[in-house]
What does this fold into?
Amino acid sequence: MRGIRKAFLTCLVLGAVLGAAVCALNVSRDYGWSRSVCDGLFVAAVMLLGAGSIRAVCNRGAFDVAGYGLRLAVELAIPALRRAEKEDIHQYRERKESERKSPGGLLLAGTVYLVLSLAALAVYEFL
It folds into this structure.
């Protein structure tokens, strides 16, 4: 649980930076503050939820065969990058399985920003 909490807090900070950057760009275009905040929160939510979704799909092994093929092609093209011992696809998948990280922090932070962006949208539309 500690790893997810740390990832969640890191993703919240990353989302705040993204949201602030989008908000600053929108304010410089003479958009109102409420619209700028709504847009910034929504962009942060989409970026975090998108990255979390890609990580979740990757954790299921969707890109393992493509990664293995690309690694073989690079090793053939650049012999200096060859590994000392050759691994087959099964060993590659086992190695990748042990390196995978949970998408929980990204998805949770993205959901928080999505809820905040919906609240900001309500403020923008009704006030």
User: Anything to note?
Assistant: The CA atoms of residues 38 and 120 lie 5 Å apart. The longest helix spans residues 33-59. Helices lie at 2-27, 33-59, 64-77, 89-99, 104-126. The radius of gyration is 20 Å.
